[in-house]
Design brief:
Blueprint: E1 10-13, E2 16-21, E3 24-27, H1 36-53, H2 65-74, H3 78-108, H4 118-133, H5 146-150, H6 152-158, H7 161-190, H8 200-215, H9 223-247, H10 255-276, H11 281-292
Antiparallel strand pairs: 1-2, 2-3
Helix pairs in contact: 1-3, 1-6, 2-3, 3-4, 4-6, 7-8, 7-10, 7-11, 8-9, 8-10, 9-10, 10-11
């Protein structure tokens, strides 16, 4: 009988340091320091990433915080107020980052910053309010996963680095599980037709490449191998889709039309999971239900 692997178990697999969570070995990274300077660097990276994935126009500079807050509070139209709340959240996230930069500069100049320092308190308040207002923000390419993504800078600030990374590894394992579910079910769908069966290997390759992409930090040198494999796998599916449409006239409502539609929807969802790197359980569930209608 195989011994059950406990969550949190660490192991080096083919030279790659990994941690085990819920059926998946996830690449891990060394935590060199838990000081404010290290947290600042990570928050900068996460802030840049989250603004890349959310709707455009909300990356408001921190120095404009008071201006956008006043405008937000005066707005009465619900739709416009939602957008202004998102812009205020962006300003708060940037202001918190600005304050943290000042604290790090003071520390590097030899100034002692006690845990109860007022600047640290203001910084935490900015991140906390940004997190609360983040519910008004929309992701650029999806309706799901924003809460996990937007909350990461606040988690870095408020948690020990070890705890933050542990939460990231758990989310990545859940994301990998969803990628496998989508790729596996989509492969079954593609196998329903002899013409589309040849795309099964492409979806399998996309799934594997996507899992490697979502576990790899962009600062890791292996990204120069991992990312091209992911992009090439994604483009192979897209090229197959466009070539199929050119050579196969599709009747609306036909089995082939449904399969090809699911192919592109599934590939896009896998790509979103790979780049956002947080689970999207509702989107995954709805896609699998669509697949089940023809299985």
């Amino acid at each position: 009988m195989n011994k059950k692997i406990e969550n949190g178990t660490r192991k080096v697999i083919n030279g790659k340091p990994c941690v085990y969570y819920d059926g998946y070995w996830v690449r891990t990274y060394e935590i060199r320091s838990d000081d404010l300077a290290s947290k600042k660097r990570l928050i900068d990276q996460l802030t840049k990433r989250v603004f890349h994935h959310v709707e455009p126009g909300i990356n408001t500079p921190g120095y404009r915080l008071e201006q956008i807050r006043a405008i937000y509070e005066q707005e009465t139209d619900p739709a416009r107020k939602r957008v202004k709340a998102a812009m205020l959240a962006g300003a708060l996230l940037n202001r918190g980052s600005d304050i943290l930069s000042s604290i790090v500069d003071l520390q590097q100049a030899g100034v002692d910053i006690e845990p109860g320092n007022e600047l640290l308190h203001q910084c935490g308040q900015c991140f906390a309010e940004a997190l609360e207002l983040g519910k008004n923000i929309k992701l650029a390419n999806s309706e799901e996963g924003l809460g996990e993504l937007w909350g990461e800078p606040f988690k870095v600030f408020s948690l020990p680095m070890e705890k933050f990374y542990e939460s990231r590894y758990i989310k990545i394992a859940l994301t990998m599980s969803e990628i496998d579910k989508i790729a596996g079910t989509l492969s079954e769908v593609l196998s329903k037709d002899s013409e589309t069966n040849q795309a099964v290997s492409m979806i399998v390759e996309l799934g594997e490449a996507s899992k490697r992409a979502c576990e790899t930090m962009r600062t890791d040198p292996v990204i120069f191998d991992v990312w091209p494999k992911y992009v090439a796998a994604k483009e192979a599916v897209e090229n197959y889709f466009h070539k199929y449409l050119k050579t196969h006239p599709l009747s609306s409502g036909s089995l082939q039309a449904k399969i090809i539609s699911l192919l592109m929807e599934g590939a896009r969802l896998i790509a979103q999971l790979a780049t956002v790197r947080v689970p999207m359980p509702e989107s995954t569930k709805q896609f699998l239900l669509k697949c089940n209608t023809i299985l």
